[in-house]
Amino acid sequence: MTTNRNRPPRGFTIIVGILLLGLIAVAVALVTRQMGYEMKRTRAAYEDAQLRQLLLAGAQDAVARAGSWDADRPAPDHWELEVPASLRHLGASVSMRVSESGPDARQVQIDAHLGRRDATDTLQFSRTDRGWKFAKMAAGQ
Q1: DSSP annotation of 103
Q2: What angle do CA 22, 26, 30 make, to 5 degrees?
Q3: Most distant CA pair in the chain, distance
Q4: How do residues 78-110 score in pLDDT, each as one tens digit?
Q5: For labeling, which of 18, 111, 114, 131 is most exposed (least CB within 10 Å)?
Q6: CA dist., res. 60 & res. 123, Å (int)
Q7: For 139, how many CA atoms within 13 A lie in the half-sphere containing its CB?
Q8: Euclidean distance between the first and the last CA atom of the chain, given in angstroms as a whole number
Q9: Contact at 8 Å (CB) between 132 and 106?
Q10: Are 108 and 122 in contact (CB under 8 A)?
Q11: CA 83/CA 99 separation, integer angstroms
C-alpha cells in the first residue's frame, strides 16, 4: 500500500472545517446581539422623543389655561390632557397638577407617561397686573 504524501490528513481538514463553522456561529451570535441592542436603543430614543413632545403639549396647555385663572380663586388642581388615540394604545398619558408656591406664584407639575417610561417637568407662573404669566421652567426635572 502506498501513501500519497502530498495530501493533508483528513483529520486536519475536518478540524479546520469545524473551527470555521464555530467562528461563523460566534459571528452570527454577535451580530444578532448587536442588532437587539440597537433595536432597544432605537426604541428608547423614540420613547424619549415622544415623552418630550407630550411634555411640550402639556406645557402649552398649562400656559393656555393660566390665562383664564382668577387672581383670587385657585386654579383647578388637576387635569388630564387628551392624547391622540395612536398614543393612547401605547399607554400614553399627560396629567397636570397645580399648586400654590407663594402669594403670587403657582407651579404646574406635568407628568407624561408612555408605556413603562415617565417624564416630569415643572412650570412656574407668577401673577401680574394682567393675570397669570409663565415665569420659568424648573431645572433638573
Answers
A1: T
A2: 170
A3: 113
A4: 999 999 998 899 899 999 999 887 778 889 999
A5: 18
A6: 11
A7: 0
A8: 85
A9: yes
A10: yes
A11: 23
Q: Which three cell numbers stand for residue 49?
A: 422623543
> Residue 115: pLDDT above 90?
no
Which phi and psi (to 5°) does residue 25 adopt? -65, -40
Q: In the prediction, which pLDDT does 97 show?
A: 93
- Taking residue 65's Cβ as centre, other Cβ atoms within 10 Å add up to 16
Write down the residue that cell numbers 420613547 correspond to.
Answer: 47
Locate 122 and state its grid cell.
415643572
d(CA 32, CA 13) in angstroms, rounded, equals 29
Structure confidence at residue 11 (pLDDT): 86
Q: Report how far apart, in Å, the C-alpha atoms of 11 and of each of 3, 16, 21, 73, 113 are.
A: 16, 9, 15, 90, 61
This prediction's pTM: 0.71
